[in-house]
Amino acid sequence: MDCVMKASITQNQSFQCSESDCSKHARCQEIRTEPVKSCPQRRNKGSVGTEDVAAHANDAWSQGYMEYGCQHYRRRCRIRAPCCNEIFDCRHCHNEVKNNIHVDKTQRHDIPRHQIKQVICSLCGTEQEVGQVCVNCGVCMAKYFCEKCKLFDDDTSRRQYHCDGCGICRIGGRENFFHCCKCRCCYSVVLKNSHPCVEGAMHHDCPVCFEYLFESRNDVTVMPCGHTIHRNCLKEMREHFQYACPLCSKSVCDMSKVWEKIDMEIASTPMPDSYRNKTVSILCNDCGTNTKVQFHIVAQKCPIFLFLSASFRCLESFVLELPELLRISPPILPRDFCHGNAVCFTEANDNTYCRCARCNVGIGGRAGGDDW
User: Fold this and answer.
1) How far apart, in whole angstroms, are the C-alpha atoms of residue 303 and residue 301?
2) Which end of the chain has the smaller Cβ count within 10 Å, N or C?
3) pLDDT at residue 1 above 60?
4) Do 95 and 111 contact (CB within 8 A), yes or no?
């Protein structure tokens, strides 16, 4: 970027600070980080009115700062959408309007952000090519400006940065994130040597709310299985006692304490003689192993994973004789204890049980679990 400073000294006079001179002054080299200031070398040479020029430039830089924009970005310009030739405050405003449920399905579309060519200054209304400074009134249209993404934002507290690997701008500070080439997204440096790589982990919709994660403005977290999900959606799953990944059914938190409680319930709930030697084939969702285990009405235990497989798929089915089943009274577990994916129903003797919708094995109560 050439460092050029232009200022009106008289009605028809201007000066330009040469690149060789300004290269010695860091403040003159980057227009994106600071307002335009007068060059110290020019002041030493006795240029008339340079202090006034610098003050005027600073006023133009900060004029209207944080006063314009929308709910998504604070900026001093609007964009003209290249797809429909309409004017919007930002690309999110465009997408919300053009993807509205009331819009004809054939007309719904997202704005191609990298193809934006024209912007309109919010202060003077001048339409111009994409740039950080208005060609008419000289106001800075955003303190953070990315020419590649055509992104304008006055709120620099979010510490925006452009990632060439992702091809878009991210928030949070470049020093706090790294780009994983296999996952094709940016993760926190805390996960640099510990996260499980999943090809294109962020290039899909959130399994709960179905928002496209790669371009989402909400916080995204990585589950132990490597799949990604909105942080708020993961918290909402926990509030509804769902502790398995919606995509692969692996546990999303440490369930060992819950499984220990289930193990105690199995030991205290003997099966009738006709089912004590009954075995079933299960597929453990956590370790992915197919095994034959002894059947129990409470839960099945994976011998490979060495924990109760509260998350499993039964690979074979058989019919329990109802009279014998009713003589086996499934335990009513504490309210802080649950299997998840459970639906309550009433059986004989007015006892309320909880039947797991995933494995169709009855257990009771609600589940607790460690915070993730």
Assistant:
1) 6
2) N
3) no
4) yes
